[in-house]
Amino acid sequence: MKFFIDTANLKDIQEAVELGVLDGVTTNPSLMAKEGIKGTDAVMAHYKQICELVDGDVSAEVIATDYEGIIREGEALAELHPNIVVKVPMIRDGVKAIRYFTDKGIKTNCTLIFSAGQALLAAKAGATYVSPFVGRLDDIGADGMQLIQQIVDIFSNYGYPTQVLAASVRHIPHLIQCAELGADVVTCPLNVITGLLNHPLTDKGLATFLADHKKVNS
Ligand code: E4P
């Protein structure tokens, strides 16, 4: 399973890189805004910085919602760095644009997936990744994990190469359930990744080992 970090914060990305377990980055316009990145030049420069930090795919989202605009923005993003994956929303013109990018050899991440049908359509258009948002489904009382299961099963039935990128992963149980269900990738904030380090019995066991060592070595 690949671990992507879901942020535009360079410090968090660097920390995840240093842990040695990071496979890529996802961003979205809200995450860019949270870092105060505004204006096309600053946005492009920021994506380039992220790509230089990480040896892996970096999803950069288009803002346009019409076919020509998505193509124009996506091509400019793809030219920035070979790690860029063009993130396209699950809308009619987005699906058409994913087909165009696929035929041109440009990687895509179809975002805002909330149903198995949407995932199937994106896979048919050749998307590299589909991003089902598990947390946002849970927020409205639906079952995000059920969607992951459905998409994993459908892609496996037909051997679609599109990877299931579980997004809106908010906590450790989400991440573990995605791993159990066979999602190809999870994207989540840094604290979810580093949270995997923790177990009280590890802390307690280590404290005992060190104390016992000290008893006979001091
Ligand atoms: C996916 O690529 C999105 O950036 C993200 O996972 C959304 O997560 P949220 O629902 O916690 O905002």
UniProtKB/TrEMBL annotation:
- The main enzyme category here is transferase
Q: Which GO terms describe its cellular component?
A: cytoplasm
Q: What start and end residues bound the annotated signal peptide? A: none
MF GO annotations: aldehyde-lyase activity; transaldolase activity
What catalytic reaction does the record list?
A: D-sedoheptulose 7-phosphate + D-glyceraldehyde 3-phosphate = D-erythrose 4-phosphate + beta-D-fructose 6-phosphate
Q: In which pathway does it act?
A: Carbohydrate degradation; pentose phosphate pathway; D-glyceraldehyde 3-phosphate and beta-D-fructose 6-phosphate from D-ribose 5-phosphate and D-xylulose 5-phosphate (non-oxidative stage): step 2/3
GO terms in the biological process aspect are: carbohydrate metabolic process; ketone catabolic process; pentose-phosphate shunt
InterPro entries linked: Aldolase_TIM (IPR013785), TAL/FSA (IPR001585), Transaldolase_3B (IPR022999), Transaldolase_3B/F6P_aldolase (IPR004731), Transaldolase_AS (IPR018225), TSA/FSA_arc/bac (IPR033919)
Q: Which key words tag this protein in UniProt?
A: Cytoplasm, Pentose shunt, Schiff base, Transferase
Which residue positions are annotated as catalytic? 87
Query: What EC designation does it have?
Result: 2.2.1.2
The protein's location, in the record's own words, is: Cytoplasm
List the Pfam families hit by this protein, alphabetically.
TAL_FSA (PF00923)
What family does this belong to? Belongs to the transaldolase family. Type 3B subfamily.
NCBIfam families noted in UniProt = fsa_talC_mipB
The record describes the protein's role as:
Transaldolase is important for the balance of metabolites in the pentose-phosphate pathway.
Name of the protein this chain belongs to? Probable transaldolase
Q: Which gene encodes it?
A: fsa
